[in-house]
UniProtKB/TrEMBL annotation:
Keyword ATP-binding set for record: no
The Exocyst complex subunit EXOC6/Sec15 C-terminal domain, residue ranges: 420-767
A cellular component term, taken from the record's GO annotations: membrane
Pfam families per record: EXOC6_Sec15_N, Sec15_C
Domain Exocyst complex component EXOC6/Sec15 N-terminal, first and last residues per copy: 59-228
Keyword Cytoplasm set for record: yes
Keywords: Cytoplasm, Exocytosis, Transport
Organism, as annotated: Arabidopsis thaliana x Arabidopsis arenosa
Protein family membership: Belongs to the SEC15 family.
Taxonomic lineage: Eukaryota, Viridiplantae, Streptophyta, Embryophyta, Tracheophyta
A biological process from GO: Golgi to plasma membrane transport
Role description: Component of the exocyst complex involved in the docking of exocytic vesicles with fusion sites on the plasma membrane during regulated or polarized secretion. Involved in polarized cell growth and organ morphogenesis. During cytokinesis, involved in cell plate initiation, cell plate maturation and formation of new primary cell wall.
Subcellular location: Cytoplasm, Cytosol
Protein name: Exocyst complex component
Length: 804
C-alpha cells in the first residue's frame, strides 16, 4: 500500500510541473503577441472557450507589471533629454528674437516693393482672362461661320439640284462640326434640319427615278423597234451576200475556167455586238443611245444615304411590275397589229437591263436579270401559243414568226437564251404550212376558174420577163419578137406565181428559226402543194371545165409547160434554202403533176378519138364485098387524114413534140382498133379481096401521113409511130399472104403477126372465105382443084377453131 501511495505522489508532482510549464508558455505567447502588436482575439476566444478568463487576466496583469520598470527607465532617459532640450531652446531664444526683428524689417521692405507688382500682376491676370475669353469667342464664331458656310453651300447645291454635293456638305457638318458647335440654338437647328434635308433629297431623287421609269418605257419600245429594225437590215444584207455567194459558186461550177470572184464581207459596226462600252451616266452606243443618268444618280444618292440595298430592291420590284404590265395583250386590238409593239417593248426592256447589269455598279445582279428573262420567255411562249392557235391565216402567222425571230436575233446579241421561243415557232411549222396550202388551194382554184383556155398574148418585153423568164419557162435563150403568143394560157404564170410565193413563204418561215438544213422540209411541203393541191385542182379542171379539143389541147400544152416550171420550183426552193443545185437535182423525183398530165393527154386523146369516131362512121358506107379497089383510099380515111393534118398543123403551135407524138400514137392506135373492130363486128358480113386491098390503100395513106411528119419525127420515131396501127397492118398482110396458115406457126407468128389476136383472126378469116369464083378469081383459074390459098385459109380457120 505504501509503495502505491508513493507512486501517486510522484504522478501528482509531474502533473503540476506540466501545468506550470503550460502557463509559462501561454504567458510567453501573449507577451510576444503584445510586443509584436498582433491581434489578441485568438487568445481571448481560447480563454473563454476553456472557461478560465482569470488566467488571461492574470497573464495580462503580469505582463503589465513586467513592463512597468521598463517604462520607468525609458521615462527617466527621455526626461534627461527633455531637460537638455529645454536648456537648448532657452539659449536660442535671443537669437530668435533677433531673427524675428530681421524678418519683420524684411517683410516691411518686401511689402513696400511688391505692392505695385501685385497690382500689375492682377491686371495681367485679368487681361489674360479677357484674352482667353476673346479667343474662345473668336473660335466659336469661326466654327459657326464655317458651319454656316457649309449650310449655305448645301442650300445652293439643293437649289441647283446637285443633291450628292448637298449630302456631302450635310455629312461634313454632321461628322465634323455638329458635336463641336458652341451654339445650342444652331446645334438644335442642325439636328432638326439635317434629317429633313436627307428626306427631301430622297423624295426628289425618288421622283426623278419615277419619272425615269415612265420615260424608259417609251424609250424601251423605240429602242426595241430600232434594234429589231437593225436586225432585219442585217438579215437582208446577209441574204444578199448569200445570193451573191451562191451565184459565184454556180458560176464556178458551170465554168471552172472562168474567174471566180471572192466576196468580201464588210464589217457592220453600226449596230454593234450589244456590248459596246459606255459610261455609267449616259449609256450612248451608236444608234442605241439612251440615258441612264437619273437611274444611276438615284442609286448613287441612295448609296450616299446608306440606302443602297433598299434602292436595289425597289428598282427590281418596279422593273418587275413594268415587265408584268408589258405582258398585257390588248383584247381591243388584233394581235397582228399590236405584236410589233408588244415584242419591241420586251426587247427594249432587256436591252436596258443588259446595259444596267454591265454598267450599273451592282444595281441589279445577273441572277435577277436571268429571272426576269425566264419570266418573259415563259410569258411570250404562252402568248405565242395562244395567238397561233387562233390564227387561221398563214400570212399573219408568218409576219409574227418573222418578227419573233428578229427579236431572238436582237436579244441573242446580248447573251439572252432564245431557244424556247424558236421551239414554239418550230412547233407551229405544220399548222403554218397547212394554212399556206389552204390559201394556195383557194388562189389556184380562182386562177384556174378564170382561165379562158387561150394562148397568152404578151405585147411587151417586161411581160415576157415577168411571165416566162422569171419562171424559166423559155425553150430558147433568144428573146422573141413582140407581140408574142405563148404556147400556154394565163393559168400557167398565175399558178407559177402562187407556187413561187408558197416556196418563198415556206423558206421565210423555216429560215432563221434555229434549223440550218430545212430544204427537205420545204421540199416535202412543195411536193404536197404540187401533188395534192395543184394536181387535184388541175384534175378537177380537166374533168369539169374542158369541153372541146382546143381546150383540151391548151390544157395539155399547159401541162408540158408545168413540167418545166416544176424543175424551176425545186431549183428555186434549193436556191433559197442554200442548198447547191447539184444536190437538189440529185434528190429530184418524178414529175409531181403526172396524174393531171396523163388526164389532160387522155382527155385530149379521148376527144380526138370521138372526133375520129365521127369520121369512122363512114365505114358503114364501104362496100366490103366489092370487086373494085377504091382508088385513093376509102372516103372515111380521106376525111380522117384531112382532120389529122389540120390537127397536126394546129397542135404544133401549142403542144410540145413529145406530147403530140403520144397523142397521135394513141389516135392512130384507136383508128387501127376501130377498123379491126369493124371487120370483126356485125356490120361486115363478108369480105372481098378488093375490100382488103382497099384497106391496104388506107393503111398506106396512114403510112404516108406518118412519114410526112418528118420535121416532127425522126426516122426512128416514125417507125415507132407506125406501130400504132400495126394490128390492122398485120391483119391485112395475113389476109393478102399466100399462106395464111403460117399464122399458127409460132416462129412466123412472133415475127410477123405478134400484134394479132387469134380470135379476131378467126372471125375475119371466116368472113374472108368464100367458095365462089368471084371471091378468089384473081388467085387462079376456076376448076375442080381447090385454090392453095383457100386451102391454107381453110386450114387456118380449122386450126383456130381447134385452139378456141
Amino acid at each position: 500500500m505504501q509503495s502505491s501511495k508513493g507512486r501517486r505522489k510522484v504522478g501528482s508532482t509531474t502533473a503540476g510541473a506540466g501545468i506550470d510549464s503550460a502557463e509559462k508558455l501561454d504567458e510567453l505567447l501573449i507577451s510576444s503577441a503584445i510586443c509584436n502588436g498582433e491581434d489578441l482575439g485568438p487568445f481571448v476566444r481560447k480563454t473563454f472557450g476553456t472557461g478560465k478568463p482569470e488566467t488571461l487576466l492574470h497573464h495580462l496583469k503580469f505582463f503589465a507589471r513586467s513592463k512597468e520598470s521598463e517604462i520607468e527607465e525609458v521615462c527617466k532617459a527621455h526626461y534627461q533629454d527633455f531637460i537638455h532640450a529645454v536648456d537648448d531652446l532657452k539659449s536660442l531664444l535671443s537669437d530668435v528674437e533677433s531673427l524675428k526683428s530681421a524678418l519683420s524689417d524684411s517683410n516691411s521692405k518686401l511689402q513696400s516693393v511688391a505692392a505695385p507688382l501685385l497690382s500689375s500682376l492682377d491686371s495681367l491676370v485679368e487681361a489674360q482672362t479677357v484674352s482667353k475669353n476673346v479667343d474662345l469667342a473668336i473660335g466659336a464664331v469661326t466654327h459657326c461661320v464655317r458651319v454656316m458656310e457649309l449650310v449655305s453651300r448645301a442650300n445652293q447645291h439643293l437649289q441647283s439640284g446637285n443633291f450628292y454635293m448637298a449630302l456631302k456638305c450635310v455629312d461634313s457638318i454632321e461628322s465634323d462640326f455638329m458635336e463641336k458647335t458652341p451654339s445650342s440654338t444652331l446645334k438644335r437647328m442642325l439636328e432638326n434640319r439635317i434629317p429633313a434635308i436627307r428626306s427631301y433629297v430622297e423624295r426628289k431623287v425618288n421622283k426623278e427615278f419615277g419619272d425615269w421609269l415612265v420615260e424608259i418605257r417609251v424609250v424601251s419600245r423605240n429602242l426595241g423597234q430600232l434594234a429589231i429594225g437593225e436586225a432585219s437590215a442585217a438579215r437582208q444584207r446577209e441574204e444578199e451576200l448569200r445570193i451573191k455567194q451562191r451565184q459565184a459558186e454556180e458560176q464556178s461550177r458551170l465554168s471552172l475556167r472562168d474567174c471566180v470572184y471572192a466576196l468580201n464581207e464588210e464589217e457592220d459596226d453600226e449596230f454593234g455586238s450589244g456590248h459596246e462600252g459606255s459610261d455609267g451616266g449616259s449609256s450612248g452606243g451608236g444608234l442605241l443611245g439612251f440615258d441612264l443618268t437619273p437611274l444611276y444618280r438615284a442609286f448613287h444618292i441612295h448609296q450616299t444615304l446608306s440606302l443602297g440595298d433598299t434602292f436595289k430592291q425597289y428598282y427590281y420590284n418596279n422593273r418587275d411590275l413594268q415587265l408584268t404590265s408589258d405582258f398585257q395583250v390588248s383584247t381591243m386590238t388584233p394581235f397582228l397589229e399590236s405584236h410589233q409593239t408588244f415584242f419591241a417593248q420586251i426587247a427594249g426592256f432587256f436591252i436596258v437591263e443588259d446595259r444596267v447589269l454591265r454598267t450599273g455598279g451592282g444595281l441589279i445582279s445577273k441572277l435577277e436579270v436571268e429571272t426576269l428573262w425566264d419570266t418573259a420567255v415563259t410569258k411570250m411562249c404562252a402568248v405565242l401559243e395562244d395567238q397561233f392557235s387562233r390564227m387561221q391565216t398563214a400570212n399573219h402567222l408568218l409576219l409574227i414568226k418573222d418578227y419573233v425571230s428578229l427579236l431572238g436575233v436582237s436579244l441573242r446579241r446580248y447573251g439572252y437564251a432564245v431557244d424556247s421561243l424558236l421551239e414554239v415557232l418550230s412547233k407551229h411549222r405544220d399548222k403554218y404550212h397547212e394554212l399556206l396550202l389552204s390559201d394556195c388551194r383557194k388562189q389556184i382554184t380562182e386562177a384556174l376558174s378564170a382561165d379562158k383556155f387561150e394562148q397568152m398574148l404578151m405585147k411587151k418585153e417586161y411581160e415576157y420577163s415577168m411571165n416566162v423568164l422569171s419562171f424559166q419557162l423559155q425553150t430558147s435563150e433568144i428573146v422573141p419578137a413582140f407581140p408574142f403568143i405563148a404556147p400556154f394560157s394565163t393559168t400557167v404564170p398565175d399558178c407559177c406565181r402562187i407556187v413561187r410565193s408558197f416556196i418563198e413563204d415556206s423558206v421565210s418561215f423555216m429560215s432563221h428559226g434555229g434549223q440550218l438544213d430545212f430544204y427537205d422540209v420545204v421540199k416535202k411541203y412543195l411536193d404536197r402543194l404540187l401533188g395534192e393541191v395543184l394536181d387535184e385542182a388541175l384534175l378537177k379542171l380537166i374533168s369539169t371545165s374542158v369541153h372541146g379539143v382546143s381546150q383540151a389541147m391548151q390544157v395539155a400544152a399547159n401541162m408540158a409547160v408545168f413540167e418545166r416550171a416544176c424543175d424551176f420550183f425545186f431549183r428555186h426552193a434549193a436556191h433559197l434554202s442554200g442548198v447547191p443545185l447539184r444536190m437538189a437535182e440529185r434528190g429530184r423525183r418524178h414529175f409531181p403533176l403526172t396524174k393531171s398530165q396523163n388526164a389532160a393527154e387522155d382527155t385530149l386523146s379521148g376527144m380526138l378519138k370521138k372526133k375520129i369516131d365521127g369520121f369512122m362512121t363512114l365505114l358503114e358506107n364501104v362496100n366490103w364485098t366489092s370487086d373494085d379497089i377504091p382508088q385513093g383510099g376509102n372516103e372515111y380515111m380521106n376525111e380522117v387524114l384531112i382532120y389529122l393534118e389540120t390537127l397536126v398543123s394546129t397542135a404544133q403551135q401549142i403542144l410540145p413534140a413529145k406530147v403530140l407524138k403520144r397523142v397521135l400514137r394513141d389516135v392512130l392506135a384507136h383508128i387501127s382498133e376501130k377498123i379491126v373492130g369493124t371487120l370483126c363486128g356485125d356490120l361486115v358480113k363478108r369480105l372481098s379481096m378488093a375490100a382488103i386491098k382497099g384497106l391496104d390503100v388506107d393503111i398506106q395513106l396512114l403510112d404516108s401521113f406518118t412519114e410526112n411528119l418528118t420535121p416532127l419525127l425522126t426516122d426512128k420515131e416514125a417507125r415507132e409511130m407506125k406501130k400504132a396501127f400495126i394490128e390492122i397492118r398485120q391483119m391485112i398482110n395475113l389476109l393478102l399472104s399466100s399462106h395464111p396458115e403460117n399464122f399458127v406457126n409460132p416462129v412466123i407468128r412472133e415475127r410477123s403477126y405478134n400484134a394479132l389476136d387469134y380470135r379476131k383472126v378467126a372471125t375475119v378469116s371466116e368472113k374472108f372465105r368464100d367458095p365462089s369464083d368471084s371471091i378468089f378469081g384473081t388467085f387462079g383459074t376456076r376448076g375442080s382443084r381447090q385454090n392453095p390459098k383457100n386451102k391454107s385459109l381453110d386450114a387456118l380457120i380449122k386450126r383456130l377453131k381447134d385452139v378456141s
